[in-house]
TrEMBL record, chain A:
Keywords: Ubl conjugation pathway. The keyword Transferase does not apply. Belongs to the SKP1 family. The lineage of its organism: Eukaryota, Viridiplantae, Streptophyta, Embryophyta, Tracheophyta. InterPro entries: SKP1, SKP1-like, SKP1-like_dim_sf, SKP1/BTB/POZ_sf, Skp1_comp_dimer, Skp1_comp_POZ. This is SKP1-like protein. Pathway: Protein modification; protein ubiquitination. Residues 118-158 form the SKP1 component dimerisation domain.
Automatic annotation (TrEMBL), chain B:
Pfam families: Beta-prop_KIB1-4, F-box. Residues 75-262 form the KIB1-4 beta-propeller domain. PANTHER family: F-BOX PROTEIN SKIP23-LIKE, OS07G0183000 PROTEIN-RELATED. SUPFAM superfamilies: F-box domain. Coiled coil: none annotated. Residues 5-45 form the F-box domain. Gene3D superfamilies: 1.20.1280.50. This is F-box protein.
Length: 167, 270
């Protein structure tokens, strides 16, 4: 399957590359969008091949990253519009989705998006209990009861306060 | 889809932690699991993010089994109207003859006892850095010890190793001085014939305003850190009432520096 990016079909003037996700889907992306990723830019500089296979990014995540890159490569959009796109882009997304996005942006070295996603994750954790974060993010608490008791004792003010108001 | 969060690389966890603006959230982040704790280090806490400061006040607490009154530092968080009582290893000194100044969450504790020990502490991180004692200032006399240091600013967070400069207004003549952790004595700038009211550190330089509304600059990190250069003199405006009880402050806003005048008795601020 070849999917064109948001700018529509390939024109003769514009160079494009095909990016393949780990599950085999292929995306046609303009070169100007692809090179916003430092990793993709390096690959394109090193080889002539117009097909790039990403072995650790799934199709859903890749589609999101490409939508982001295409928007940011569009010279017709103002910086304000791009900023509001960024806000929309991360809002309402599940933790799992954000996690794969942050991993993908790290691999592809899309620094701006990586920061936007990291900021969104930090915002989700705002004013939350440790237990809430563990539950919602599905994290195994690997502290021994003794170690956790010691951490709680050291920063008792921070732990005790939130125990009372939530959960 | 099963989520395996702790497998996020440490740098990415640190990137997320760095965007937590509240130290309270930062501590909770550290409490989640061991890999999150090792990513959210003391150094990774971003001191540059804008925050509403806490207000600190000290109360006395008398324990039944002890004769003396223990001083407890309380911190009032303006964002949620809560008071936090941080007792672990704080206050930095149980010495009653001491006072504190603060900058960016760091507290300078100055003892008015013999020698005048000075240290910089962070109540949440439980870090304490020793600075040279007051008696290493030139011409320091024990009788001058009361409120010897009146203002303090830091060049950066003390977590950035090797770069910290602590800058102060000191002594009866309100002159400028500075030191770095590990120094054996305080350094002072050339004598200025005015008396300084406020200091601010900006773009690698120390700026100070004196009571005659003159602004000076010191290149603290440069080859000649003791040199004072006048950069601005606020014109005398006859319709403003000036008195000995007027204080001037330097305030940074939108990339510029403002001089704020405060009339202490007439309560007019212009």
């Amino acid at each position: 399957m070849v999917t064109t990016d948001e700018k529509g079909p390939l024109t003769a003037k514009k160079k494009s590359v095909i990016i393949r996700s780990c599950d085999g889907d292929e995306f046609l992306v303009s070169e100007s969008a692809a090179v916003l990723s430092t990793s993709l830019k390096k690959i394109l500089e090193e080889k002539e091949d117009r097909l790039i296979h990403l072995s650790d990014i799934d199709n859903k995540t890749l589609a999101m990253v490409i939508a982001y890159l295409s928007t940011h490569a569009d010279d017709g959009l103002s910086d304000d519009l791009k900023r509001s796109f960024d806000q929309e882009f991360v809002s309402g997304k599940e933790f799992d989705v954000l996690k794969y996005l942050v991993l993908a942006t790290d691999t592809l070295q899309v620094t701006c998006l990586c920061y936007t996603v990291a900021k969104k994750m930090a915002d989700i954790m705002k004013n939350k209990l440790v237990e809430w974060v563990r539950r919602e993010f599905d994290i195994q608490n690997d502290y021994t009861p003794e170690a956790e008791a010691e951490i709680r004792r050291l920063d008792a003010w921070a732990w005790d306060d939130r125990q009372l108001e939530d959960d | 889809m099963h989520s395996d969060w702790p497998d996020l690389p440490s740098e990415l966890l640190a990137d997320i932690a760095k965007r937590l603006s509240s130290i309270h959230d930062y501590l909770c982040f550290r409490g989640v699991c061991s890999s999150w704790r090792s990513a959210a280090t003391f150094d990774n806490f971003d001191n540059a993010l804008p925050r509403v400061p806490w207000l600190m006040y000290v109360t006395g607490e008398k324990k039944e089994e002890e004769k003396h009154v223990e001083r407890v530092a309380n911190f009032f968080d303006l964002t949620n109207n809560k008071t936090y009582n941080i007792t672990t290893n704080f206050p930095p000194s149980h010495d009653k003859k001491s006072y504190v100044l603060s900058c960016g969450g760091w507290i300078l504790c100055v003892s008015e006892d013999t020698g005048g020990a000075v240290n910089l502490t962070h109540p949440v991180w439980r870090v304490k850095l020793d600075l040279p004692c007051l008696d290493t200032f030139p011409e320091y006399a024990h009788k001058d010890r009361i409120r010897f240091i009146t203002k303090m600013v830091l060049s950066c967070s003390p977590t950035i190793k090797g770069h910290l400069v602590v800058m102060v207004i000191w002594g009866k003549k309100n002159q400028l001085g500075f030191s770095r952790p590990g120094d054996s004595s305080w350094s002072v700038t050339d004598t200025w014939d005015g008396s300084f009211s406020d200091i601010i550190y900006r773009n690698g330089r120390l700026y100070a305003v004196d009571f005659r509304r003159k602004v000076v600059e010191c290149d603290i990190d440069g080859p000649n850190p003791s040199q004072i250069v006048q950069v601005f003199s606020f014109p005398y405006l006859p319709d403003l009432y000036y008195s000995a009880s007027t204080a001037f402050y330097l305030v940074e806003t939108s990339g510029g520096l403002l001089i704020v005048r405060r009339g202490i008795f007439d309560r007019r601020t212009i």
